[in-house]
Specification:
single chain; mainly alpha; two-stranded parallel ribbon; 4 helices; 6% strand; globular
Length: 90
């Protein structure tokens, strides 16, 4: 689970855009076998090469991480399709 997600969740919750307890979500993800994925410089450099299909900076770093690490993304956001990353949830 990306550190970008655990950063984004409380921000979006504070804005009233979603309802979620980031600690409970992280614990649930870990109980399912997810491991922590830090944001590193290679990920941030990859963002500059992404086409501007998505303007949300959190989503762009998630795409960069998925591409760089060969990982799928769990999302229902159709904007991710343009990046050709594997998606697990619709």
């Amino acid at each position: 689970m990306s550190a970008a997600s655990t950063w984004e969740i409380p921000i979006k919750a504070a804005l009233g855009k979603l309802d979620g307890d980031v600690a409970a979500i992280a614990d649930g993800a870990r109980s399912l076998g997810f491991t922590d994925l830090a944001v590193n410089i290679a990920h941030t450099l990859r963002v500059r090469d992404l086409e501007p299909h998505h303007r949300d900076p959190f989503d762009r770093i998630l795409v960069a991480q998925a591409l760089g690490e060969g990982l799928p993304i769990i999302t229902h956001d159709a904007a991710f399709d343009a990046y050709r990353v594997p998606i697990l949830w619709r």
